[in-house]
Amino acid sequence: MVEKSETGEPNKINESKYPITIGSLVINEDVLGYGSHGTVVFKGTFQGRKVAVKRLLIDFYDIATKEVQLLQESDDHPNVIRYFARETTDKFMYIAIELCIASLQDIIEKQHVSLFSEIRSQIKPEKLLYQIISGIQHLHSLKIVHRDIKPQNILIAAPKKNQNHPRVLISDFGLCKKLEDNQSSFNNTIHIAAGTVGWRAPECLLLAHLNPSQTCDTSSLGSNNNTDSSSSYFKIYQSQMNSDDHPEPLRITKAIDIFSAGCVFYYVLSNGQHPFGEHFYREANIINNKYNLDSAFGGINIEAKDLIEHMIQADYRKRPSAKGIMSHPYFWSPTKRLNFLQEASDRFEIEQRDPPSPLLVLLETNASLVVSGDWYKVIDKALRDNLGKYRKYNGGSVRDLLRSLRNKKHHYQDLPDYVKEALGPIPDGFLNYFTSRFPYLLLHIYYVIVNTKVLRNDSIFASYLNPTTE
Question: Which helix (H) or strand (E) holds 44?
Fold first, then answer.
């Protein structure tokens, strides 16, 4: 609402003396932060509710109006900042949004501050990252591309009633763009790379350096042969991808948000590091696809590393969608992982074995890596002796490894105590027994299923491949 005088002109309110009252909005002098183009964020209240108030120069009225429109359209989601109201004077536009207690950058980089340290201790990384990608998925479902995903624009709010985990909110819609109904990409505005230095996708950077008359295609994107820190399974998966590598003109798509989110994922799990190195070298490294995911912090397991590597691929056509990321095994609980392996085993058991069906041939691809050479020699003697009582197993077969896992889970209560002790309790200990010895097993089965239409569409895998917003 614009405050009007009797002449129809905006009221000239004294905006140098705090608190400032405009309609139902009260702006206090406490500054929460600063943004581009003279933007300042203050504490305030709206109808008695504590809010953050974003003050933008009236010169950027059109940009601010677009931001409000996108906020109004997208804020009906638990992981997107909530919009309350806007007020306009002759100098500024004020936007009232949900007040948060910290940014992601605060809780990662300012752990010496007791408040931020306490919030950090309450957060489970997988829950935090799931909320980030859930918010991005919501925006993408509305054909909104954020274009500035970074730690400063991801805010932390207090848990809602009956919840014990802080809420994670996507904020700052100033650079967002909405695709038209028939659009899947848009031009990079006057060849300026939207976003923040060090968090922008390579296609943004390449297009930003072109003259308006120049063009660029996907062959300019860095190769995916980053051998320094790529996981063995990721390299094998890349070599098997049957994707169209014919060059096509570079486009700006939703995938720019996926790239930035991949960098944020690593930032969280490595306690503040960046996959493309130190600040001054990041953009050159991004263009050259030179990254390193070997964090000394130790918070990155094989599933997390695999997910991040897919998200930060140089070729945006090969990055997963937000929805695909939400169904990645990194986010699964031990129970869900164990049930998935068991149901996968059940599904492969119905395949013709001699000669092996095409699905079994696919399952056994790169078996040596998956079963650590010979899984029968890798398991301990207690389990090996117990397995040998009932049937013969092929130590080089992925199918037989899955079968052994499934059988022991089915008959766990009937196992001798010494075998139970070796395997550990279900689900955590039992799952860890197998995944610690065969770290690529879960990812291998997951990608065999995801990349095979008949398996991907099988109803038994629906609960694993169709993410929820839990």
Answer: strand 40-46
Give 59's contacts (C-beta < 8 A, 6+ positions apart).
none
Q: Residue 46's beta-bridge partner residues?
A: 25, 49
pLDDT of residue 190: 41
Let me know whether 346 and 382 are in one domain.
yes
List the one residue out of 70, 43, 245 whose CA is nearest residue 145. 70
**Any domain includes 66:** yes
Assess whether pLDDT exceeds 60 at residue 3: no
In angstroms, the CA 321 to CA 453 distance is 17
Q: How far is CA 58 from CA 55, 69, 88, 94, 236, in A?
A: 9, 16, 8, 9, 54
Q: Report pLDDT for 2.
A: 42
Domain contains 168: yes
Q: Domain with 256 in it: what CATH number?
A: 1.10.510.10
Position 19, amino acid: P
Contact between 303 and 442 under an 8 Å Cβ cutoff? The reply is: yes
* Distance from the Cα of residue 294 to its chain's centroid: 18
**Could you tell me the pTM of the whole model?**
0.89
The mean pLDDT of 220-247, rounded to a whole number, is 58
In the block, residue with structure tokens 């909320």:
131
At position 286, the amino acid (one-letter code) is: I
Q: What CA–CA distance (Å, rounded) separates 169 from 121?
A: 18
Say whether both 338 and 446 belong to one domain.
yes
> Within this chain, do residues 117 and 154 fall inside the same structural domain, yes or no?
yes
pLDDT 10s digits, 154-178 = 999 988 888 888 999 999 888 888 8
Whether residue 174 is found in the same domain as residue 145: yes
pLDDT (tens digit, 9 = 90+) per residue, 348-396?
999 999 899 999 999 999 999 999 999 999 999 999 999 877 678 999 9
Our answer to whether residue 385 is catalytic in this structure is no
Question: Which listed residue (30, 75, 90, 148) is catalytic?
Answer: 148
379 to 172, 301, 335, 415, 438: CA distances (angstroms): 51, 21, 21, 16, 10
Q: Decide if 3 is inside a domain.
A: no
Using the predicted structure, report yes or no on whether residue 227 has a pLDDT greater than 60: no
Nearest CA among 382, 436, 441, 373 for reference residue 406 = 441
Look-up: residue for tokens 């108030």? 53
Interatomic CA distance for residues 400 and 386, integer angstroms? 15
pLDDT (mean) for 200-215: 78
